[in-house]
Predict the structure.
Amino acid sequence: MLSLERVYQAAHLLKDVIRETDMIPATNIKTNCDLFLKTENLQNTGSFKLRGAYFEMSQMSQEERAKGVVACSAGNHAQGVGFAARALGIKATIFLPSTAPISKVEATRQYGAEIRLVDGVYDDAFNEAVKYQQETGAAFVHPFNDEDVIAGQGTIGLEILKQLPHMDAVVVPVGGGGLISGIAYVIKKLKPDCKVYGVQAEGACSMSNAMEQNQRCTLSSVSTFADGIAVKCPGELTFDMCQKYVDQIITVNDDEIATAILTLMEQQKLVSEGAGAVAVAAVMFNKLPLEGKRVCAIVSGGNIDVNILSRVINRGLQTSGRLSEVTIELLDKPGQLRDVASIIANTGANVTKVSHKVGGENMDINGCSLHVSMETRDRAHLKEIEEAFNRAGYKLIHKP
């Protein structure tokens, strides 16, 4: 069984392998609590996964190491296993879902691991990895449902208690549950009055559902850009530990996650992937009872694919009211564009794109529509723009 002694052993073994990541006060992020960020996105390999993978593999016998290891992952665990395998001189074969970001696949390959892509999501890669393990006898390094992996992740809990001893709550990303199991176990054993909250993506809420239904359940599908926590079914061990040690698990949607990524970049100069930002999203959007509390949010990884980063930023800007579009019904006559632009400029917004269309269904013969894209401050600013158009007598077809 997992014990504090095992977690301390993991911490001792890992001290020359991992970074003790910084605890950063998030003074620039608007929240209703005193927020601190545990920056596992700055860990070696770009996520917390190295801790559990290395500790698990370090406990293998020479006979086990000679047969090699097999793992499955959406990307971060793969990099952790690849890093550990290279450091320990073990052959690694890693199965990844075809949906894994190319950047994570290539980073894993650079550690020397053999990569096998599987159509589908994490659970499909897991099934193929199990088949391979049975055929070859290689040791399976599970990404979350393993006591040594959980002990490795639990070392984060020890660091949190050392860096922020007087905290009231810890907010943790949840996929299969390995990270929160390790952290919650340590926190509840050493500081039982501290709350431990988990956060999942709305489109991959397997552990959240399991906690509500009091039994493990498998989602028919998952849908979220937070690929690191896109897990259809939680582990048996991690589910049991969440039931014992976790106070609550809630969900955030992809728009909220994108906004958190944008906020971390702008306000804290931190790059986070989708899975890494869910805890911050939960705090920012007041999903948990944290008002006036001292809170640690885990930024669990920073391995976001640059090919989708611009889309994520754009979504975050839209969700936070920084980018918006409005369509205005007008009479097609000279001076209309000037008057519309004047209203927008007087409210302090910036026009980025204008599209003019003559006529349309349910519109006067001499009517037209003007579609305007704008840069704005926030949603309150959008409301101010809408009210300015209404006062000027304009009809908004599509409101901000």
User: Anything to note?
Assistant: The mean pLDDT is 92.
